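Ticket #4471: structure export looks truncated?
Reporter: QA, pipeline team
Priority: medium

Steps to reproduce: submit the single chain below to the structure queue and open the exported record.
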Amino acid sequence: MNTSLKEAQQEIVDEFAMLGDWQDRYEHLIELGKELPLIAPELKTDENLVRGCQSRVWLTAEDRGEAIHFTADSDAMITKGLVALLVRVLNDRTPEEIMGTPLTFIDAIGLREHLSPNRSNGLVAMLDQMKRYALVYSSK
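Actual output as written to the record:
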């Protein structure tokens, strides 16, 4: 991966800054979700469901030596866009980067205050799951 975590977050902040209102931003989230690489159907299992999300979100992690590779999907378009943002920032990073870097882009683009409480809780649950994977892989 060529960009640092900080740079990857700044790209998202810049991208969202170019969008006008929140209607445009939600549409952008939906587009990001559509661009998320498809998850293998056999990975859509109950054990890969993120607990704490109102929609169904599947999240898997694969240890690729130095880095963790994430795949994800959701049955809800905006939620799929949210998980796509997290994957974009955290994918193919080391466990230490994933656990040690605050994700400032979430507040910087105003996501937290524009999401329903359920979606906001789901976002936290997805991020927590990614950090749990990182913790498991860091101890190997």
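Status: closed, not a bug. The export was complete when the record was re-opened. Leaving a note from the reviewer for reference: The first helix runs from residue 5 to 17.
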